[in-house]
Design brief:
about 500 residues, mainly alpha, two-stranded antiparallel ribbon, 21 helices, globular, Transmembrane_161A/B, signal, Transmembrane protein 161A, membrane, transmembrane helix
C-alpha cells in the first residue's frame, strides 16, 4: 500500500493552500460578502423620535431613576418606520456569531470537494486499488467536523435562557431518539440500509482480528453489541428549531413577495430544494425505489427497467445533484432570513401601544448577528448528506458509471502483513546520519502501512455501505421532520 504517493502530495498541497489563502480569499466570506446579500440597519433614537413627531429628549436629573439609570425612550408602535438597506461587507461579517467556525467549515468543505474530484480522476486513470483513498478520508473528516459544528450550535441553544430553545432541543432530542429506534427495527425489505450485513461483517472481522493478535478465547456478545450500536446510531445529533424556521422561510413567510421577484424557473428550483430531503428518503425505501425500477410489476410478470448496479449509481448521482441544488439556493434562503427584520417591523406597525427604542434596535440587530448561525444550520445538513454520499461511494466500492461491475466489499483473507525489517546499509561514516533518517522514515511508513491494512481488514466496504447509507438517510429524515414542524409553527403557532 503506497502511502507517500501523489494523493498525499495533493492532500498536503490543498491543506497548505487553504491555510495560506484563508486570510486573503475565502469562499465562505465571498458567499456572504460579495454584495448580493443586504442587511437592514437599526434606526437611531433620533430617527425614531423624528418619526414619532417629537424632539430628542435631553437627559436631566429628574429623568434619572433611583438606581441611576435613565428612563428608556419609548415610541408608538404604529410609526411609519422603514429600515435602511445596506450590502454586507467583510467588516460587518466579523461581528457575526460563529463566523470563524462558519468560515473554516465552508472552506474546508470546498477544498474537500476539490481533493475528492482529484482522487476520483486519479482512480479512473490509474490502478490505485492498493493505495489509501485520501479523498475519502477528507470526506469523513468533513462529516466529523460538521457533526462537531452541530454539537457546538446545540450547546449554544441549550445554554440560552431566551426563547425556550432548551425545551425545543430536548423535545427534538427525544423525538429523534424515538423515531430512530423505530426506523432501526424496520426490516431490510423496506429500508435497504444494509445495517444487518454491516454489523455481521464488522463483528466477524473483529473476532478474526482478535484471534490473530493472540486473543483466542475472545468473542463479541452479538445481541448486546448490536443493541448498543443501534442506540448509538439513534443518538446522532439533530438540528435545532432555527434550522426548521430557515428552511420554510421561502415557502411560507415570504412566498407572496418572492412570487413577484423571482421567475418561474427559480420558484420551481426553490420548491425542489425544499422537497429534496423527501426525495433522498424515498431513494432508500426499497419497495418504492429499487423494486419499482428493478422489478417493476407488469400484470403477472415483472420487468427490469434498470439493473441493481445501475440503480446504485443513479441514486448517488441524484443525491449529489440535489445537494448541489440546495447549495445553489443558499443565498435566497439567507436573504429571506434577513428580510425578517423588515417583516417584524411591518408586524409591529399593526399593534397598538408603545415600545422601547432599544427593543427595536435590539431586535433588528439580533437578526443580522445570527446570520452565520442560520447559514450553518442550513449548510451543515447539506454537507452531511453530500460528503456521506461521497464517502459511501469511495469506501463502499460503488461506481459513478451506471453499468460498472460492483462487488460487495468483503475482505477475503484477514491476514495482517508483517513489515519487512529494514537492514542498515553499509555506507561510509559520512552517510550514516542520512541512512538513519531513511531507516526511520521507512520504519514509520511500514508501521502506518500495517495499521491501515489492519483497519482495512476490519472496516470493510460492506460496513461502510450500511453506516453511511443510514447516516445519509437519517440526516434527510431530520430535515423533513424539522421542516414539517416549521410549517406547523408558521402556519398555526405564529398566527395564534
Amino acid at each position: 500500500m503506497a502511502l507517500m504517493g501523489i494523493q498525499l502530495v495533493v492532500s498536503l498541497l490543498a491543506a497548505c493552500i487553504m491555510q495560506r489563502m484563508a486570510p486573503h480569499y475565502s469562499f465562505a466570506r465571498w458567499l456572504l460578502c460579495n454584495g448580493s446579500l443586504y442587511r437592514f440597519k437599526h434606526p437611531s433614537e433620533g430617527e425614531l423620535c423624528a418619526l414619532a413627531g417629537k424632539q430628542m429628549p435631553k437627559p436631566t436629573r429628574k429623568d434619572r431613576r433611583q438606581n441611576g439609570e435613565s428612563k428608556p425612550l419609548t415610541v408608538p408602535k404604529d410609526i411609519d418606520l422603514h429600515l435602511e438597506k445596506a450590502p454586507i461587507n467583510a467588516l460587518d461579517a466579523l461581528v457575526l456569531r460563529f463566523f470563524l467556525e462558519y468560515q473554516w467549515l465552508v472552506d474546508f468543505a470546498v477544498y474537500t470537494a476539490g481533493v475528492f474530484m482529484f482522487t476520483e480522476c486519479y482512480y479512473s486513470s490509474v490502478d490505485a486499488s492498493t493505495e489509501v483513498n485520501i479523498g475519502a478520508i477528507w470526506c469523513v473528516l468533513t462529516v466529523l467536523f460538521s457533526l462537531k459544528t452541530l454539537k457546538t450550535l446545540m450547546s449554544h441553544y441549550f445554554s440560552s435562557e431566551e426563547g425556550g430553545e432548551r425545551s425545543v432541543c430536548l423535545a427534538f432530542g427525544f423525538l429523534s431518539l424515538l423515531v430512530a429506534m423505530l426506523v432501526l427495527v424496520v426490516r431490510e425489505d423496506y429500508l435497504e440500509f444494509g445495517l444487518e450485513s454491516a454489523f455481521s461483517s464488522l463483528f466477524d472481522n473483529l473476532e478474526v482480528f482478535a484471534r490473530q493478535q493472540g486473543y483466542a478465547e475472545w468473542s463479541i456478545p452479538w445481541n448486546i453489541t448490536k443493541s448498543v450500536s443501534r442506540a448509538g446510531f439513534s443518538n446522532l445529533p439533530t438540528p435545532p428549531l432555527r434550522m426548521a424556521t430557515s428552511n420554510v422561510l421561502h415557502v411560507l413567510s415570504n412566498t407572496s413577495a418572492l412570487l413577484h421577484v423571482y421567475n418561474v424557473s427559480c420558484r420551481i428550483l426553490l420548491h425542489m430544494s425544499f422537497l429534496s430531503p423527501v426525495i433522498v428518503m424515498i431513494l432508500w425505501v426499497k419497495p418504492i425505489a429499487r423494486d419499482f425500477l428493478a422489478n417493476a410489476p407488469l400484470g403477472k410478470t415483472t420487468i427490469t427497467i434498470v439493473s441493481s448496479e445501475t440503480f446504485d449509481s443513479v441514486r448517488l448521482w441524484i443525491i449529489v445533484v440535489l445537494c448541489l441544488l440546495r447549495l445553489a439556493m443558499t443565498r435566497y434562503h439567507m436573504q429571506a432570513y434577513l428580510n425578517l427584520a423588515q417583516k417584524w417591523v411591518e408586524q409591529m406597525k399593526k399593534e397598538a401601544g408603545r415600545i422601547a427604542a432599544i427593543d427595536i434596535q435590539r431586535k433588528v440587530t439580533r437578526i443580522f448577528c445570527y446570520l452565520t448561525v442560520i447559514t450553518l444550520q442550513y449548510l451543515v445538513p447539506v454537507f452531511l448528506i453530500l460528503f456521506s454520499t461521497l464517502a459511501l461511494k469511495s469506501l463502499g466500492d460503488f461506481s459513478w458509471k451506471a453499468d460498472a461491475d460492483q462487488t460487495p466489499g468483503v475482505t477475503p483473507a484477514l491476514i495482517i502483513p508483517i513489515a519487512a525489517p529494514v537492514l542498515p546499509g553499509g555506507f561510509d561514516e559520512d552517510e550514516e546520519g542520512m541512512d538513519d533518517m531513511e531507516e526511520d522514515v521507512q520504519a514509520t511508513v511500514a508501521h502506518l502501512t500495517e495499521a491501515f491494512m489492519a483497519l482495512r481488514s476490519v472496516l470493510t466496504p460492506l460496513f461502510f455501505r450500511g453506516f453511511f447509507a443510514f447516516l445519509t438517510w437519517w440526516v434527510a429524515a431530520c430535515q423533513v421532520i424539522s421542516s414539517l414542524f416549521g410549517i406547523y409553527f408558521h402556519q398555526y403557532l405564529m398566527q395564534n
